[in-house]
Amino acid sequence: MSERSVLVVAHTGRPEAIRSAQLVIERLSAAGIGVRVLDGEAADIGASGVAVMPSTAAAAEDAEVVMVLGGDGTLLRAADLTRGVGTPLLGVNLGHVGFLAEAERDDLAATVDRVVTCRYDVEERMTVDVVVRLNGSVSGTTWALNEASIEKAERERMLEVVAEIDGRPLSNWGCDGVVCATPTGSTAYAFSAGGPVVWPEVEAMLVVPISAHSLFARPLMVSPRSLVAVEVLPGTPRAVLWCDGRRTIDVPPGARVEVRRGTEPVRLARLHLTPFTDRLVTKFGLPVTGWRGRVRQPVQPSPPLKDSQVGNDGGATGEQRR
Predict the structure, then answer these.
(1) Which fold, 5-125?
(2) In contact, 34 and 1? CB cutoff 8 Å
(3) CA angle (125, 72, 271) in 5-degree steps
(4) Which residues are within 8 A (CB) of 265 and not within 5 positions of it... i.e. 6 or more apart?
(5) Calculated CA dihedral for residues 158, 163, 169, 170, nearest 10 degrees
(6) Residues annotated as binding site?
(7) What pLDDT score does 301 carry?
(8) 318 pLDDT exceeds 50?
(9) Percent over 90 (pLDDT), the chain
(10) Residue 268 and residue 122 in contact, taking contact as beta carbons nearer than 8 Å
(11) Residue ranges under compositional bias (Gly residues) (predicted)?
């Protein structure tokens, strides 16, 4: 196998993703780069000359990058493999909005060329670590890149919770749930629940009640050093904790969910230094008709200095500098 290697992860339920994976493998192999695929996807992709890896962190270990072909859900699945080993993820959007993806389907060949020539940057995205406690004991731990959401498990009844920030109670909510999100997740579930859009470089955690029956149920943005806790009150229906819509833990009445900044970030490969504002406009199709940008006044040349304004060193005198 080549000293260089790339892991390819695809949404094999989509024929387009399979075709894209085959193209990526062909171009990477032609460039002398070794290719890995996951054992659960190898048969569907049907490529030869690749290393078939178990669907564990070992698949991404020592790889240069993980190319993810699909939507944000596929990238979140790949993040499970890379978070512990630090391999950057490069998403190619074959889905709908695809906020986490760096490239679009039409740019696939050019994206592979950028990987071959190592022309990409890497940025780190904040994660959250989550602990569920029951009667003082830890009953479950997990993590999230986008969000941890505590949701009611029974449709017919509201969830009764109390929110806590840094060890102090904030408010009781009768609600459908509470979303605790990262800036990356601000455009995902938290956005749908009415939370603010947060630029990725802002370090903060979001707390967004879902359909809360309360006068004070606004989205909150707290310090990244804060400990956010949501306690499910006794006598209320049981809840379920969802992390990135993938990992679940049951949260019975009386349980407590603690969310804090994650100890390990997720690394994303960046091909373009596109401002996040432009990404919002493109992904959501926001209207910007009429924008003219900053109006710049023409630069007027400075008048030449008179002899009396020039010092011995040829520079402007103090009077002129002022």
Answers:
(1) Rossmann fold (3.40.50)
(2) yes
(3) 60
(4) 83, 124, 125, 126, 127
(5) -90
(6) 72-73, 77, 146-147, 157, 176, 187-192
(7) 58
(8) no
(9) 77
(10) yes
(11) 312-322
Please state, in angstroms and as integers, the Cα–Cα distance from residue 164 to each residue in 132, 304, 315, following that order. 14, 66, 62
Using DSSP bridges, classify how beta strands 103-104 and 89-93 pair: parallel, antiparallel or unpaired. parallel
Provide the whole-model pTM. Answer: 0.86
> How many Å apart are CA 228 and CA 210, to the nearest integer?
16
Which residues neighbour 114 within 8 Å (Cβ) at sequence distance 6 or greater? 120, 271
For 295-308, letters b (16+ CB in 10 Å) and e give eeeeeeeeeeeeee
Please report which helix (H) or strand (E) contains residue 43, including its range.
helix 42-45
- What are the pLDDT digits (tens) for 32-83? 999 999 999 999 999 889 999 999 999 999 999 999 999 999 999 999 999 9
Residue list for the binding site for NAD(+): 72-73, 77, 146-147, 157, 176, 187-192
Long-range Cβ contact pairs of 71-75 (< 8 A, separation 24 or more) = 71/11, 71/95, 71/96, 71/98, 71/101, 72/97, 72/98, 72/99, 72/100, 72/101, 72/188, 73/11, 73/245, 73/246, 74/9, 74/10, 74/11, 74/17, 75/100, 75/101
Active-site residue, selected from the candidate residues 39, 72, 106, 278 = 72
Domain ranges in the chain with CATH number 2.60.200.30: 128-261
* Residue 44 is among the residues annotated as catalytic for this protein: no
**Main-chain phi, psi angles of 269, to 5 degrees:** -80, 135
Scan for tokens 């149920």, then name that residue.
Answer: 217
CATH number for 128-261 (one of 3.40.190.150, 3.40.50.11690, 2.30.40.10, 2.60.200.30): it is: 2.60.200.30
